[in-house]
Each structure stands twice: as C-alpha cells, then as structure tokens.
Amino acid sequence: MEIVLDHVSFTYQAGTPFAGDGLKDVSVTIPDGSYTAIIGQTGSGKSTLLQHLNALLKPTQGTVRIGDRVITPQTSNKNLKPLRAKVGLVFQFAENQLFEETVEKDVAFGPKNFGVPAAEAMERAHHALTLVGIGPEYYQHSPFDLSGGQMRRVAIAGVLAMTPELLILDEPTAGLDPKGRKELMTLFEQLHQEQGIGIVLVTHQMEDVANYAEHVLVMAGGQVIKQGSPAAIFADPDWLHAHHLGLPQAARFARLVQAQGLPLPAPLPLTEKALAHALLPLLHPGKGQSDE
Amino acid sequence: MTEEAPIITMENVTVRYAEQEQPALDGISLTIPAHSWTALIGHNGSGKSTLIKALDGLVTIDGGTMTVAGLTVNEENIWQIRRRLGVVFQNPENQFVGATVADDVAFGLENAQVPRPAMVDRVAAALEQVGMTAYAEREPAHLSGGQKQRVAIAGILALAPDIIALDEATSMLDPEGRASVLRTIRTLKAQENLTILSVTHDLEEAAAADHVIVIDNGHLVASGTPPEIFAQGAALIDMGLSVPFTEQLKTDLEAGGITLPAGYLNEEEMAAQLWKLYSTM
C-alpha cells in the first residue's frame, strides 16, 4: 500500500494563540512494501508525520493518500477505522498501553474491537504472539508480570494481530537491552522480507538505518529536508553534523582510520560487516584480495 | 588510579519480590570505590534497577547488609542516605513536582528543611552547574528530555550528594540529549569529586567508565575495568548483552585471518593497530 503526502502542512491547535507548526509543505511518497527510515532531531516533526500515515491526524492543508483512500482537511473522522487496521502504528514505549488481564486478551482486543469474531481474534492473537516470540506458557499471564522487553513484544503483537499491510514504528527499541533490540529488529526484518509488510521506522539509531532501511527521510523543522538511500544520506557527514545527526558507528570509525592514512575505498562502509570486508584486503593483501 | 576506600558496599544482599520465584537480587556482594565512575550492565530484568532502588531504600532487602557513605542502609538512616545518594531515573516525565524549574530543584531542599535564603542560593548554583539557569522560571513540561534530566540532576546536586546514581537516565533521550547529560555528569564528577553509579545499556558509556559490574539474573557475574570486562566478548553476548563496536570488528578481522593484540582495544587503539598492520606490510 503506497502512501503519498502531497503538499501537507499541519498546524497544532490551529486558530488559537498556541498554534504551532507540525509539518510544513511536505510532499513525499512511501512506496508500497518499502522499508523506510525517518531520522531527525527531537521536535523535527517525525511523530507528526507518522500520525498522518494512518490518519490519526488530518492535514491542515494538502492531501494524504493512503492506498486508495484520500485524506483531506475536510475528511470526516467516520470510517477511518478500516484504514487503521491496514496501517498499524506502534507508539514509543508501546507497553504503556497494555491494559487487559491476560496476555492473550490484550493482543486479541484489537481485532475484536474491529469486529473479528472472538474465536478468530484469539487465533490471530496466538499467531501474532508466536511471531513476536511469546510462547503459550505466557498466554494466561498478566502482561504486567512480564519483563519490559516481553511487554513491548506483547504490545507489538497487539498491532500485528490486526494483520496490517504497513507497520509504523516509533523508536521501537528505545530502552531495551542489546539482545532485546536485536530480536525486535530481526522480527521487523522478517515481517518485511517474508510477509511483504511495509515498514516505516523512526529511529535515532543510525546503525539500524544502515542495516535495515532501503529509503531514508531526513526531517528538520517540520520539513523533509533530504531523502535517499542510506548510502546517499550517509555520504555527506558534514551535512549530517550540521543537522545534528550522526553517522553509523562503522562509518565514523572508517573516517578515523582514513584520517590516519589507510586508503579505504569509497563508499564509506556503513555497517561493521562492510567495514571488516573493506579492511581485510588492506591488511592482508595477497590472501584477502584473491579470496574476496 | 589509586584504589579509593569504598563508598558503597553490599554484602550478600537478597531481594525477593512477591509472586516471583527467583529473587531479583540473589546474594550480591560488591564494593564501589569513592570517586569512581562505575557502570552497571546486564540485560533487562537482570536486577540492575533493583540494586539501585535497594541502595536508596525504595525496596526493602530480604537479606544481607549495605552501606552508603559509611552509613548502614536501614530505616533510621534512609533520609540521610538519600541526601548522600541521589538517583536520576529513566523517564524524564515522571520526576517533576514543581510548577517551575526552580521550584522543582528546590523541592528536595524543602524536604531537607534548608532555610529559604540558603535554598535560593543553592537552587541558583545547581541550575548554573547543569547549564539550565536561563530556564529557572519555565514550566518543566516544556523542556526537552535532555533538559528535563539535567533539571533532575540539579535537584540532586542542590543537596550536595557524594554519589549520583543514574538508572538508565539517558535511555529515553535522543543522541544530543544523551550527550548533553553525560557531559554534564562528567563535568560535575570532576568538579564535585562525585562517585557515579550508572545503570546503562550504552556500551560506549560503559567502556569509558573506571569500573564495570555485570549483573545477570540477580547475580554479580563479573567486575573489573572495561578492558577486563570487554575482553570476555562471547560470555557477554551469552548473557544477552553486546560488546563494544571495536570488539565486534576485532572478532570479524580475526576470522578473516588478521592477528590483533589480545585484550580490549578502544577506537583510537584499534585505529592505531590497523595503521600499524597496514604500514608494516
């Protein structure tokens, strides 16, 4: 499902003295089935943009086309529900929204609320819990007895149980330990690769952008100021720095060894594996080059 | 660095939560030297936060003894201990009580019954130290996450503590906010001769600490300098942790047939080693 924002502006509390710009004249396309990362400082408009992708917010000006639905400033709030089943939004610290007595009830709540019969909703819940790696032994637990990482996964299962075509993730790994972070990022990658689910990821982790995204939007001051592949975005470290954004660690380290005189070939390696791959022939010419 | 006397000691400390079979802390013994920066690492649910809460008297222990700044942690001493040990928690939204930034910083002093003129001076000084003077009359709600955490630190500083404990205090911040809070803490540590105990998942922060303590399932499993800890790469990964970037790179380069010196190398040391290998070939 493609999403197209056409000259979208959004003003918070429009018409009041507290009015503030959320988005300014944003025109972007999120291609069907893509893995798109959105980066930018806190306050740059990332969350406001996300909420336009499933019509939680409607533009003050311009149009948002989500699949075949067109959202304009005049669109009524009625009948937006089916849209929200297709575009699943996982908020930051999603575990704060858990509320049911048991894990399975919490996950089944979404589909039930959308009119799915109870038995099928439960089936979907179990399937979604399997996807996120929560086994049957937890189905009857209270979600509040789980660890932070498990609670986060249950909350994500609640969104997956709606069988969305597009999954929007607002800093989904914040506060998790390295293993929990890796497991979640691997899960999203699998959903993307194996089930063709589109992903929109808001993150501060440039490593995740380098490792997973196909397309990157850079936001500042409510506008999309640059877009392109991770390689294109990270090719200009000075521009990123000027916009308070960093490089993935591998690229940062690559610049350090380049500065010392090691002739690492362009483009800058963005991941640790790519860096090791680029370094090996330089450190071990005879063997490295013939083997590569 | 000469070994300082311990400012925190834990001897066989056990904490059990109701309804949980496994204790959150299971006979932990450790000492933390005064004026050190100690990073406490471990996976989610390993007991790190419980350890901080136990020291601050926010959870009661079921066995063992603890001292903070020479005082045994018990009901009688707890208010004195809370003036010596301040905790900055994870969520910047959850720690504000004042209507303005200055009121908020004053809250701890009011609790400690500091007379008003002294209070005003100490609030101003604490805000100055965290670089938030210009925001004294603002509402806390309108600050960024990094600014909120710096105000929380000012509230602790105003009480002139010996120890600041950070319970994942930067994990909800963006990279700039995180950097600003860590910079503030580093400066304060030097100026005020503080001891820092930081619960963190940020391995680069841990790599810059004086000591690293690893907790797993309520047990202390390792304690040492960052090079000592991070040289045990595989064991850390088995515990659900990760290793710093240079250690991952080293593993991959070694798998590719490159020989690097044993032990943990930080980024500068790794870059220097790579240059040495390249230039002497």
Automatic annotation (TrEMBL), chain A:
| Cross-referenced CDD domains | ABC_cobalt_CbiO_domain1 (cd03225)
Protein name per its UniProtKB record: Energy-coupling factor transporter ATP-binding protein EcfA2
Briefly state the protein's biological role: ATP-binding (A) component of a common energy-coupling factor (ECF) ABC-transporter complex.
Q: What is its main location?
A: membrane
Q: Which domain of life is it from?
A: Bacteria
Q: What are the UniProt keywords, alphabetically?
A: ATP-binding, Cell membrane, Membrane, Nucleotide-binding, Translocase, Transport
Q: What is its EC number?
A: 7.-.-.-
Q: Which organism is it from?
A: Schleiferilactobacillus shenzhenensis LY-73
